[in-house]
Amino acid sequence: MTEHITWHPSVLGKKDRQHLNGHQSFVLWFTGLSGSGKSTLANEVDRQLYSLGVRSYVLDGDNIRHGLNRGLGFSKEDRVENIRRIGEVSKLFVDSGQVVLAAFISPFREDRDGVRKLFDGGEFIEVFTSSPLEVCEKRDVKGLYQKARRGEIREFTGIDSPYEIPLEPELVVDTSSATVAESARQVIGFLKERGLI
Q1: What is the distance between the alpha carbons of residues 79 and 39, in angstroms, rounded to a whole number?
Q2: Cβ neighbours around 4 below 10 Å, total
Q3: With 25 labelled, which of 36, 53, 57, 98 sits at a CA distance of 20 to 30 A?
Q4: How far apart are the C-alpha atoms of 190 and 95, rounded to whole Å?
Q5: 3-class state of residue 149 by DSSP
Q6: Catalytic residue among 39, 106, 131, 183
Q7: Cα separation of 89 and 83, whole Å?
Q8: What tens digit of pLDDT does each residue of 5-32 get?
Q9: CA torsion angle for 44, 47, 49, 55 (degrees, to 10)?
């Protein structure tokens, strides 16, 4: 970082914006294999939050790569930078008083832990969308697993690149045994129990 850049403080702070919104702000960080239901679950939680009057926004892996992270590939270095950028964007949303639903494979613990460090205590909620690899492969509407198994896609998470399961996520949702609506209610119930919404 250059020495000529200085952080400019806002007149209104996070607490002011949370007060205006009537709820806490935080990030729900959905992590899991491709096809584990991260985006589907994040969008259903978003819908349910909207019905409760909670201001929220979904940041989805594919959507972010269409714009902000368009120039990044899928090498380990690019994946690390992808998650770093999303962490910074998520922090801006949380500072603005909103709930962020970030749906990214984010396969490496170190990267997820790095994002966690950006937030105040209790603002980063890791949600592990647990689903066996075989179930994820059956759900694969894009055919990515088949391409990876044929060698057409290299460094694909779960096939020839590792996924590091969260050691102590705030919430584990078994998306292979519950419906989307049930899974979303589990997340909403967790947020209510914590007094976040």
Answers
A1: 18
A2: 5
A3: 36
A4: 22
A5: helix
A6: 106
A7: 10
A8: 877 778 888 999 999 999 999 999 999 9
A9: 120
Report whether pLDDT(119) > 90: yes
Q: Please state, as a whole number, how many other Cβ atoms lie within 10 Å of the Cβ of residue 83.
A: 25
Q: Is the pLDDT of residue 81 over 70?
A: yes
Q: What is the pTM of this model?
A: 0.91
Whether 176 is catalytic is no
What is the rounded distance in angstroms from the CA atom of residue 42 to the CA atom of residue 171?
13
Residue 165 included in any domain: yes
Q: Write down the pLDDT at residue 74.
A: 79
Here the CATH number for the domain that contains residue 95 is 3.40.50.300
Q: Residue 154 sits in which domain range?
A: 14-193
pLDDT of residue 1: 56
